[in-house]
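Why should sequence recovery work at all? Because a backbone constrains its sequence more than one might expect. Tight turns favour small or flexible residues, buried strands favour hydrophobic ones, and helices have their own preferences. The token representation captures these environments compactly. In the example below, the structure is given first.
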């Protein structure tokens, strides 16, 4: 078989056929899952804490004119009641 004149290549041990002529056979388990969808990954479990909470808007301080006007309106309201 090997006399040194030919290039060395792998051969089948049963029949002696050169292996470069043979097709690669599919593996046994490749056909079973070929059409099956991949399993979904497990959802990530988060801790009980929520995200950052929004701060409440700070109430603006009334101007001096608004405070005086409100006070005058209260006095007038008290007079008519």
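From this structural description, the recovered sequence reads:
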């Amino acid at each position: 078989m090997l006399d040194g004149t030919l290039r060395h290549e792998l051969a089948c041990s049963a029949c002696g056929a050169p292996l470069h002529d043979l097709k690669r056979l599919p593996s046994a388990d490749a056909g079973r899952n070929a059409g099956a969808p991949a399993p979904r990954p497990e959802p990530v479990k988060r801790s009980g804490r929520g995200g950052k909470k929004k701060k409440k808007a700070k109430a603006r301080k009334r101007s001096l004119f608004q405070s005086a006007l409100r006070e005058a309106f209260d006095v007038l309201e008290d007079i008519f009641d």
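A few observations help interpret the result. Residues 32 and 38 are 13 Å apart (CA to CA).
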